[in-house]
Amino acid sequence: MRIDRTRFHDTVLAGVVAAASVALFVLYEHGRLSSGDLVVDGVREPDPLGALLVLLACVPVAVRRRWPLAALCAGLVPETLLAGFGYSTGVPGLSGLVLLYSVASNRGLAMALGGLLATVLAYALGAAAGPPSATTLSDHVVVAMVLVSVWGAGRSLRLRRAYMEELRGRAARLERARAADTRAARAEERSRIARELHDVVAHHVSVMTVQAAAARKVLSSDPGLAGEALTAIEHTGRMAMSEMRNIVGVLRTDARAELGPQPGMEDLPALVEQMREAGLPTRLVVEGEPPPLPAGVDLAAYRLVQEGLTNSLRHAGAGAKAVVTVRHAPHELDVLVADDGRGAAGASGRPGHGLVGIRERVALYGGILSVGPLPGGGFEVRARFPLKDGQ
User: What is its EC number (predicted)?
Assistant: First the structure.
C-alpha cells in the first residue's frame, strides 16, 4: 500500500504536539493553588477534562495541510474552552500556533488574514471568559507579538514558495522557448543546406553530363579531345565533391568539419570559364566599380548566376550563347543571365526547382527576381538586390 507521506508526517506531528502540550499542561506551575478545585489567581488545577481538551485541540494538526482553516477553527474551540474554564491564562497552545502557521503558509492572503483574525478573536473571547486577574496587559502584548510573528513566518514561507515556483515556471518557459528556437534554427539550416546542395549538384552534374555527351560523340574520331572532356569531367567532379564537403561539413559530429569560404561574385570568371569548357560560350560583362557586398547577397548573386547558366546549358540547345551582366550601382546590384537559345524545352519549360530556390534567396535579401523568355528568342534570369549605404 502506498502511504500518503504528507498525511503521515502531519499525523506524527500531531502526536508530538499532543505529547508536548499535555506535558506542559500537567507540569504547569501550580504553586499559586491553595486547594482542590478552587481557582486561585485565576488558574485551575489540571484534571482529566483539561487534558482531554488539550488533546482535542491537537487532533486537527493531523489535517493541517489538507484543510488548514477548518483545522484551525476546530482547534480554537477547545483552546477557548480551556481559557474560559480557567485552565490557562488564555495564551494559545502549541497546536494553535502550528495551525495558524499552516494557514498562513498554505493558503492565500485573504484566507491567511481570516485565520489570524479568528485566532485573535478566540484569544480575546477566552481571555474575557476567564478570570480577570489571570492576565495582564503585558501578557496580551506578548501574545499579540507571538501570533503576528508566527503568522508572518508562515506568509514568508508562502511567498518564498510562490517565488521559487515562478522561477521554475520561468525557467521551464525559457527552456521551451530555447528548444523552439533551436528547432526553428535547425529547420532553417536544413533548408539552407538543401538549397546549397541542390545548386551545387545541379550545376556540376549538368556540366558533367554535357561533357560526357561530348566525349561520347568524339570518342571514335578524336580520342584526344575525348580525353580532354574526360579530364574536365574529373575536375568538375572533384570541385563538386569539395563544395559538398564544405556545405555538409557543419553537420558532422564525429570529426572536424572541412570548412572553406563560400563562393561569391569574385569567383564569376572561374564559373564562366567552366561553362565555356562545358560547351556553352559565355561572356562576362561587369559595369561599375564593385563595392564590398554583404556575405549573404554575395553568395545569393553567385548562386543566381550559377543556376541561370546551368539552366541555359540544359535547355538553350546547340549553338546557344550566354551573357552574364553585372551592374554595380550606388544602392543596387543588378545581375542578369541571358542566352539566345531556342531549346526544345521551350520558354515555359525553363524554370525548375533550382530557380524556385533562387527566388527564395533573392526575396530573403529584399531583391526582385524576374525570369522568363526574351522577345527575340532566348531566356533570361535577372535579379536586383537593394544595397544600403552603398553596400
Answer: 2.7.13.3
**Given a cut of 90, is residue 23 above it in pLDDT?**
no
Half-sphere exposure of 7 (CA within 13 A, CB side): 5
d(CA 94, CA 82): 13
Give the integer Cα–Cα distance in Å for 318 and 280: 9
Query: At which residue does the C-alpha cell 493553588 appear?
Result: 33
The pLDDT assigned to 328 comes to 92
* Cβ neighbours of residue 291 closer than 8 Å, sequence gap 6 or more: 328, 387, 390, 391
Output the CA torsion 28→77→123→142 (10° steps).
40
**177 has pLDDT over 60:** yes
pLDDT given for residue 368 in this prediction: 92
Q: Give burial (CB, 10 Å; 0-12/13-18/19+) of 199.
A: buried
Which residue segments constitute the domains of the chain, with CATH numbers given? 5-135 (no CATH), 182-257 (1.20.5.1930), 265-386 (3.30.565.10)
Q: What is the pLDDT of residue 1?
A: 45
Sign of CA dihedral 217, 223, 228, 230: positive
CB 266 within 8 A of CB 307: no
Contact (Cβ atoms closer than 8 angstroms) between residue 366 and residue 329:
no
C-alpha dihedral over 255, 256, 261, 263, to 10 degrees?
0
